[in-house]
TrEMBL record:
This is Chromosome partitioning protein ParA. Gene3D superfamilies: P-loop containing nucleotide triphosphate hydrolases. Residues 114-134 are annotated as: Disordered. It comes from the Bacteria. Coiled coil: none annotated. Residues 5-241 form the CobQ/CobB/MinD/ParA nucleotide binding domain. PANTHER family: COBYRINIC ACID AC-DIAMIDE SYNTHASE, P-LOOP CONTAINING NUCLEOSIDE TRIPHOSPHATE HYDROLASE. It comes from Pseudonocardia hydrocarbonoxydans.
Length: 286
């Protein structure tokens, strides 16, 4: 089971769009996937059209108590169809976003996801843990909030790869650098399996001089860490999200262009699952 976090420490760059696009590509290619909505805004849960969740648990409950029985109640099928489930997001998740969490708090999400992969904590099973959990999943996509508190750090502590999402603006470089530093810090703190998969630039407009300059700047500073394909700024993305359907099923030229980038991203994610861990050199700093 490959766990991928979509990460940005700058709001409004389309981090949830990338999480949804990657999940949609996985579903389209028959890769059973769980999307973990860790952002208290819960936009991914809404876009995935899960319906009424008042009778279910949420990711906030899982972070309170990561037993199998709680996890099972917090995972529901998406409205996008078979093969894609959701660990439901909720505004209450914000109560877990402490700025300086203890190690035990940071480990709860990873512990819960470990149960999906068949993991267990010997001697720590409690009543209700004998309940079957959903799965198996080949891919877990975690949509992180745009801040470096307990929630994002919990995702990095549980993840194998991180996709750093940015846009081509003047604040992009510092945002990507801070996100990269957060990944490196979590590797050193206790998750040596975590690697930055790459930097994905979103909302790029063709023939826009400012965007071309910022894309070139990112490529110069971060080198091969920047994905060769960028996500173009297309209205189809907002239209598909507004209709609560995957971009892969929105039949317009713009949607197909965006979908192709997500298919490439999925391929890179799946290839990284078989790649041995290696040290990642930091990109140059300004």
């Amino acid at each position: 089971m490959q766990v991928v976090a979509t990460l940005s420490l700058k709001g409004g760059v389309g981090k949830t769009t990338v999480a949804l696009g990657l999940a949609g590509a996985a579903q389209q290619h028959g890769v059973r996937t769980l999307l973990v909505d860790l952002d208290p805004q819960a936009n991914a849960t809404i876009a995935l059209d899960v319906g009424d969740t008042t009778a279910t648990a949420t990711v906030a409950d899982v972070l309170d108590d990561p037993r199998r029985s709680v996890l099972r109640r917090a995972i529901v099928p998406s409205g996008w169809g078979e093969g894609l489930d959701v660990l439901v997001g909720a505004e209450q998740t914000e109560r877990h976003n402490h700025p300086d969490p203890a190690a035990k708090q940071l480990g709860r999400l990873g512990r819960a996801l470990g149960r999906l992969a068949g993991g267990a904590d010997p001697g720590r099973e409690e009543p209700g843990d004998d309940v079957d959990t959903p799965g198996p999943y080949r891919l877990v996509v975690i949509d992180c909030p745009p801040s470096l508190g307990q929630l994002t750090r919990s995702a990095l502590a549980a993840a194998h790869r991180a996709v750093l999402v940015t846009d081509p603006t003047m604040f992009a470089v510092s945002g990507v650098q801070r996100a990269f530093d957060a990944v490196q810090a979590e590797r050193q703190r206790g998750n040596p399996d975590l690697q930055p998969l790459g930097v994905l630039i979103n909302r790029v407009r063709p023939r826009n001089a400012e965007h071309e300059f910022r894309v070139a700047e990112l490529r110069e500073l971060f080198g091969p860490l920047v994905f060769s394909g960028v996500l173009p700024d297309r209205s189809a993305v907002q239209q598909a999200q507004g209709a609560c359907v995957p971009i892969q099923s929105w039949d317009t030229p713009g949607a197909r262009e965006v979908s192709a980038v997500f298919t490439t991203l999925l391929g890179r994610v799946l290839r990284s699952e078989r790649r041995p861990r290696a040290a990642t050199a930091p990109p140059p700093t300004r």
